[in-house]
Write a structure and sequence with these properties.
single chain; 8% strand; globular
């Protein structure tokens, strides 16, 4: 056994760094002899080109970089051998081990070389993109696109108008499931249509008064409301209030007194048609009348179904919203058979759509397969701006007109207006 300072004669000599020694050259497990690269000095005055002569193929070894030429203002002529279509094919061919690569013509000194690509095999002339090439993001930045949508939705000039229906459209927004977006849909559709030239009336028939809150209409105790119209036969024009900041939009508020209307209407003659007579007696003509229903199938909802000509059903993209839809359709059919033969489910709107989940997509497909063309193409996504707007007494159309929620409700209003033209022509 050799001492600490003596060399072991049986020890395998380790190759010197940079000598080109390759242990993988021998397949019998013994170290292979030094290749011809060991005779080359460590600091070569000339840069290597391709693989060294006589060296075995190493899949982990990268070819040496070619020298970069000096840029010039005159671009060279493209030969067929260096055309963009053939550059990638020729670049992927590797030289055979032991054979020197074919000499390539030296680049001219005045040839501008593209920057080297570091993204795999996509390098070459055809992968080079100039920094001066404008992109769509540079032409239309997100802030500019949001500002364009805001101007389109707010319509400050009043020049852009949605088509007006030939006759008043009375739409009941109903769904016995709570929290599906009935009030939000009523408020935002009404504001979108009113901002684009339509005369709109919103009737808040929910004792919670959320539609009145969203339109910033006072609805505390003592305010004349829809309860007075149903119980005391007060004209609808006396309780309707103009919505501040939104032209051509009026709202009939609802107070807490409306909670007792369900019991008081039981003994009233023609209790199912009280709201229909109040709307018909209004002296002014509206293009749209939206009735926001409570989340139940009681007498208040029946009054709304009798007064309306169309039913708009907002459906949340979840399973529970589909579970109670069958019962709602059955009640609508009963009202149509006995009280209002002209009633029709004309519009289905998908709300609270979360594109990150498969459930939302499955619910959408089921609804579209069942109702067909009645489902609007516009889908309302989950958007925090839509939920924030009522806390400021506004709709999302005026709170954040450039948001995704405002854009979706604007597209839904456009579809409803276009369908009104198809039903009976434009006014």
């Amino acid at each position: 056994m050799a001492g600490q300072g003596e060399a072991d004669p049986h020890a395998v000599p380790q190759p010197r760094a940079g000598s080109g020694y390759d242990r993988s050259a021998r397949h019998d497990g013994e170290p292979g002899p030094a290749t011809g690269r060991s005779a080359v000095p460590e600091r070569s005055p000339q840069p290597p080109t391709g693989y060294p002569t006589g060296a075995p193929d190493d899949p982990h070894r990268r070819p040496a970089p070619t020298p970069r030429s000096q840029p010039s203002a005159v671009p060279p002529a493209v030969s067929p051998a260096t055309a963009p279509g053939t550059a990638r094919a020729t670049a992927s061919v590797k030289p055979v081990s032991g054979a020197s690569p074919s000499p390539s013509p030296a680049p001219r000194a005045d040839t501008p070389a593209p920057p080297a690509s570091t993204y795999g095999d996509e390098g070459g002339v055809d992968a080079y993109v100039s920094r001066e090439t404008p992109s769509r993001e540079e032409d239309d930045p997100p802030l500019a696109m949001e500002a364009m949508r805001a101007v389109q939705i707010l319509n400050p000039s009043g020049e852009v108008t949605m088509p007006r229906p030939a006759r008043p459209r009375i739409m009941c927004v109903a769904n016995q499931k709570g929290g599906v977006g009935k009030t939000t849909t009523t408020v935002n559709l009404a504001v979108a249509l009113a901002l684009h030239g339509n005369r709109v009336l919103v009737v808040d028939l929910d004792p919670q008064g959320n539609a009145s809150t969203g339109l910033n209409v006072p609805h505390h105790a003592g305010i004349p409301d829809v309860y007075d119209c149903l119980i005391d036969n007060v004209p609808l024009a006396d309780v309707a209030q103009a919505v501040e900041g939104i032209p051509n939009l009026w709202c009939v508020p609802a107070t807490i007194d409306l909670a007792g209307a369900e019991i008081e209407l039981v003994s009233v003659v023609a209790r199912e048609s009280r709201l229909a007579r109040a709307i018909a007696a209004h002296p002014e003509t509206f293009d749209y009348v939206f009735i926001d229903c409570p989340p139940s199938l009681g007498l208040l909802t029946v009054n709304a179904l009798v007064a309306a000509q169309e039913v708009l059903i907002p459906i949340q993209c979840e399973y529970y919203a589909l579970e109670g839809l069958n019962q709602l359709i059955n009640n609508i059919n009963l009202v149509k058979q006995h009280l209002n033969p002209t009633l029709d489910v004309s519009t289905i709107l998908l709300t609270m759509y979360d594109r990150r989940t498969r459930l939302a997509d499955a619910v959408e497909q089921d609804v579209r397969n069942h109702f067909g063309d009645k489902v609007l193409q516009a889908v309302i996504p989950r958007n925090v701006r839509v939920s924030e707007a009522p806390s400021y007494g506004q709709s999302v159309m005026t709170y954040d007109p450039g948001s995704r929620g405002a854009t979706s409700y604007f597209e839904a209003a456009q579809e409803i207006a276009e369908r009104g033209v198809k039903l009976g022509g434009a006014a």
